[in-house]
TrEMBL record:
GO molecular function, one term: hydrolase activity
Active site: 11, 71, 143
Subunit annotation: Homodimer which binds Holliday junction (HJ) DNA. The HJ becomes 2-fold symmetrical on binding to RuvC with unstacked arms; it has a different conformation from HJ DNA in complex with RuvA. In the full resolvosome a probable DNA-RuvA(4)-RuvB(12)-RuvC(2) complex forms which resolves the HJ.
PROSITE patterns: RUVC (PS01321)
Keywords: Cytoplasm, DNA damage, DNA recombination, DNA repair, DNA-binding, Endonuclease, Hydrolase, Magnesium, Metal-binding, Nuclease
UniProt cofactor note: Binds 2 Mg(2+) ion per subunit.
Organism for this UniProt entry: Mesorhizobium escarrei
Identification of the protein by name: Crossover junction endodeoxyribonuclease RuvC
Binding of Mg(2+) 2, residues: 71
Coarse class of the protein's main subcellular location: cytoplasm
Length: 169
């Protein structure tokens, strides 16, 4: 029937980086854990990035996922905020890559389409569908719920030809 694959989804943010872990076996998904890594918004940027790095590294060390998925950054009108988000996203991609995981990336609309069936929707719809797909799922923030949605999206797309080719590289 195949092997169980543990996936961590990461929703990057400088203040709060959400994470969610699911196990995928065939078409079946099981909630494992979720949470939020927080940085001290009064600290220097480099310190905050270290806090995100250390928090995510501890989660990967403890949970030992096989694969990772990170949401792609969208560009907004505030260039400084977009740049900071990009730096947090870099940490979100670096930590699993340093752990030897292949890191998949998904656009926000792809995550929404995988979870709620359409490419546009609000957070309430995503959270509701995460709970429908995994009734035992718990999340402490919107970021953690979004991270679970990213993990679910990856579970649905991981068998694509592009992902299989990337895994061979």
């Amino acid at each position: 029937m195949g092997e169980t694959i543990r996936i961590i989804g990461i929703d990057p943010g400088l203040r709060r980086t959400g994470w969610g872990i699911v196990e995928s076996l065939g078409n079946s998904l099981r909630f494992v854990a979720s949470g939020t890594v927080r940085s001290d918004d009064k600290a220097a940027l480099a310190t905050r990035l270290c806090q995100l790095h250390d928090g995510l590294a501890e989660i990967l060390h403890t949970a030992m996922p096989h694969e990772a998925a990170v949401e792609q950054t969208f560009v907004n009108k505030d260039a400084a905020a977009t740049l900071k988000l990009g730096q947090a996203r870099g940490i979100a991609m670096l930590v699993p890559a340093l752990a030897g995981l292949i890191v998949a990336e998904y656009a926000p609309n792809a995550v929404k389409k995988a979870v709620i069936g359409v490419g546009h929707g609000d957070k309430k719809q995503i959270h509701m569908m995460v709970k429908v797909l995994m009734p035992k799922a718990t999340f402490d923030t919107d970021d953690a719920a979004d991270a679970l949605a990213i993990a679910i999206c990856h579970a649905h797309h991981r068998q694509s030809v592009v992902y299989r080719l990337a895994a061979l590289a």
